[in-house]
Amino acid sequence: MTASRNLAALRARLAADRLDGFVVPLTDEHMSEYVGGYAQRLAWLTGFGGSAGSAVVLADRAAIFTDGRYTIQVREQVSGDDWTYVDVPEQSVAGWLTGRVGAGARIGYDPWLHTRGWVEETAAALAARGATLVPVARNPIDAVWEDRPAPSPAPMIVQPDAVAGASSAAKRAAVADWLEQEGADAVVVPALDSIAWLFNVRGQDVARTPVALSYAIVHADGTADLFVAPEKVTPAVAEHLGNAVRVFPRDGFADALTGFAGKRVAIDPALAVAAIFDGVEAGGGTTVALRDPTILAKACKNPVEIAGHRAASLRDGAAVTRFLRWIAAEAPRGGQTELSAAAALLRFREAGGDLRDLSFDTISATGPNGALPHYHVTAESNRAIEHGQLYLVDSGGQYEDGTTDLTRVVPIGVPGEEMRDRYTRVLKGHVALATAVFPHGTTGAQLDALARAPLWQAGLDYAHGTGHGVGSFLSVHEGPARIAKPSYPGAGPSEPLRAGMILSNEPGYYKAGEYGIRIENLLLVVVRTVDGGEAEMLAFETLTLAPLDRDLIDTTLVTRAELRWIDDYHARVARELGPLLDAGDRAWLEERCAPLARG
Question: What are the residues whose beta carbons fall under 8 Å from the beta carbon of 463, sequence distance 6 or more?
Fold first, then answer.
C-alpha cells in the first residue's frame, strides 16, 4: 500500500509540473551502482530492493525494468496491480516509451541521474513520435518523498600510502601527464570510487562501499579541486590532502563547471551525468569525451594492493571456515534461519579483527530463496534452514587492505542426486575458468563460455554474469573488466583483461522454487610463461581460500585434471588457513579438505 500511495503522489506531482511521464533510474548523481539512502528513489517508489533497475511512470500506466537476475524478485516485491514487468535487454526504456506516448507528450528526466548518451538516444526515440524529453530542475520524487533521508554526514578517512601502494600526489601527477597527452586542461572525476582511489581517502556515505559523497576536478598542473561537505574534512584528512588540493563545498560543484570558458575539459561519458556536460558547455568550455584516467590504474592493482588482498583473503577465509563448520553442525539440529546464519557469519568476521564493514549485504538464502541470485533476506522473507535444502551464502568483507567476495553452498542433510549433478557442473565450469590460459588482449566475454559449457551440455544456463571486477577497500563491483556474455545487461564494450586485475569467478545454477547453487572465488590476473611457448600469456591465480562442499561433488562427473585442481586447491586451503584456526576448526578443515576419491 505504501508503494501505491507513493506512485499516486508522484503522478499528482507530475501533473502539477505539466509532465506526462517520468523516468526513474536506480543510481545517484555519480552514476553509482550502490547508492546512499537519500538516492533510493526506485525503492521508495516501487518497493523493489534489487541493485539494478529503472522505472517509467505515465499517467495511466507504469513499468519497472529489470534483468534476468531479478525476474522472480521483482514480482515478489513490486505489485503487478500497479506495475508492468519489463525484461532487459529485450526491451529498453526508450523502446517501451515510444510504443506508449503520442505527439506532444512531455516525458521528464533528472539530468543528474542519466548519461548524455542515454539522453540523446531517448530524446531521439521520443522525437520520432512527436514527444519531448524534458530535463527537470528538481526531481519530482524528492518533492513528494516526505521522509527522505539526508545524505550521510560521516567524515572522510585517510587510506595510508603504505596500504595504497602509491601516494595521491603520484596518482595526480599521472593524471596531469595524461591531460598533457590528450591536450586537455582539466578532467572531471565524478565517480566516487575513482575519487577515493585518486586521493587515497575513504568514506562511509554508501552502505558497504567505503566512499564519500564528493566530486573532483584535476588540472593539468597536477592540482585538484575537491567538492565535499566541509564537515567531512577532518584535520587529518586536510593534512593528508595537502596544499595542492583545494577543498570546496559539494554544492558548489555545479557552478564550478561553468568556469572553463575557452578550455578543454575531459569527461567520461560512461561515468558522468548529462548535467556535467551541460554545465561545462554552458560556461563556454569544450567537453572532450574520454575515459576516466583513473579507471585502468585502479583496476590493475599494484604489488602493495595485491599483497594486501592476499592478507585480507586469509583473514576472511579463516572466518568463513569457522562459519562453515558452525553451520554444518547447527543447521541440521534445527532452529537456524537465514537471518540467524547471516548474523553468525558477521560475528565470525568481526572476531577475526580488522573488519571495517561487509562488502555487500550478505545473501543468506536457503531452499527456494537460493534460486534468487541477488536475494536479500528481510524479516518478512526470512526462512528456516531445514533438512533437504541447499543453503547458499554469498558474502564478503571490507578490510583496509582488501575487499573480499565469495559464495559457498552447504547441503542440510544428504543432498539429492540432481543437486549433486548441478553443483558438480557448476564446479567444473568454475575450474575451467580458474585454469584458463589466454593471450594478452583477451576479453571476459571470450572466456565466459568456459564457465557455462558444463551446464550447456545438460541444457542448462544461468541468467547473470560470470565475473565482475573487485576494488581494493573499495567497491565490490568494479569496472571496467567483467566476465559475461556480450549481450549481458550493461556489459558495454568488452574490456581486455590485464595483469593485476581482480575478478570474481561465480558460475551458478538456479531451480526456481527449489534451490540455488553458486561457487565464487576471486581471481587475480597474472602473467604466465608457458614451457615451450612462443608468446607471453595471462592466467588466473585464485585468491579466495575456503573449503568447497565435498558432499556435493559427484566425482564420476569430473575429469582427472579437474579432480587434481580440487585436491590441490583444498590442500592449499588447509595449508594456508590452518595456522589461523584453533585445533578444533583446523581438524574439521583438514577433514573437509582431504583428497577426494574418484568415483
Answer: 67, 68, 69, 71, 373, 510
Q: Which of 214, 278, 292 is nearest to 246 (CA)?
A: 214
CB-based contact 404:522 (threshold 8 Å): yes
* Residues sharing a CB contact under 8 Å with residue 271, sequence separation 6 or more, in sequence order: 30, 31, 190, 191, 194, 292
Check residue 494 and give its pLDDT: 83
Instruction: Average the pLDDT over each of 43-47, 213-217, 336-340, 531-535 and give the range with the smallest value.
Output: 531-535
Binning pLDDT at 50, 70 and 90, where does residue 353 land? confident
What H or E segment, with its residue span, contains residue 119?
Answer: helix 116-127
Beta bridge partners of 542: 523
- Give the integer Cα–Cα distance in Å for 258 and 529: 51
Cell of 530: 608457458
pLDDT value at 482 more than 80: yes
Q: Residue 511 has which C-alpha cell?
A: 531451480
Residue 525 pairs with which residues in a beta bridge? 540
- If you search the block for the grid coordinates 542519466, which residue do you land on? 114
Q: Tell me how far apart the alpha carbons of residues 231 and 204 are, in angstroms, rounded to a whole number.
A: 13
What share of the chain in percent tops pLDDT 70? 98
Q: Which residues contact residue 575 at a Cβ distance below 8 angstroms, ignoring those fewer than 6 apart? A: none
Rounded to an integer, what distance in angstroms lies between the CA atom of residue 99 and that of residue 117? 21
Q: Give the model's pLDDT for residue 89.
A: 85
DSSP state of 291: -
Tens of pLDDT along 32-83? 999 999 999 999 999 999 889 999 999 999 999 998 888 888 998 999 999 9
Distance CA 318, CA 323 (A): 9
List the beta bridge partners of residue 209: 206
Q: Could you tell me which of 104, 128, 205, 159 has the C-alpha nearest to residue 403?
A: 159
Short-list 301, 244, 270, 342, CA closest to 491: 270
With beta carbons less than 8 A apart as the criterion, state whether 540 and 280 touch: no
C-alpha cell at 599: 568415483
Three cell numbers, residue 407:
559464495
SS3 state of residue 152: coil
d(CA 368, CA 383): 9
3 confidence band (pLDDT: 50, 70, 90): very high
Q: Is residue 491's pLDDT more than 80?
A: no
Q: Determine the average pLDDT of the residues in 370-383.
A: 93
DSSP 91: S
Rounded Cα distance between 5 and 501, Å, is 46
Give residues with Cβ within 8 angstroms of 4, minimum separation 6. 79, 81, 82
Query: On the CB side of 198, how many CA atoms lie within 13 Å of its CA?
Result: 31
Round to whole Å and give the CA distance between 45 and 52. Answer: 14
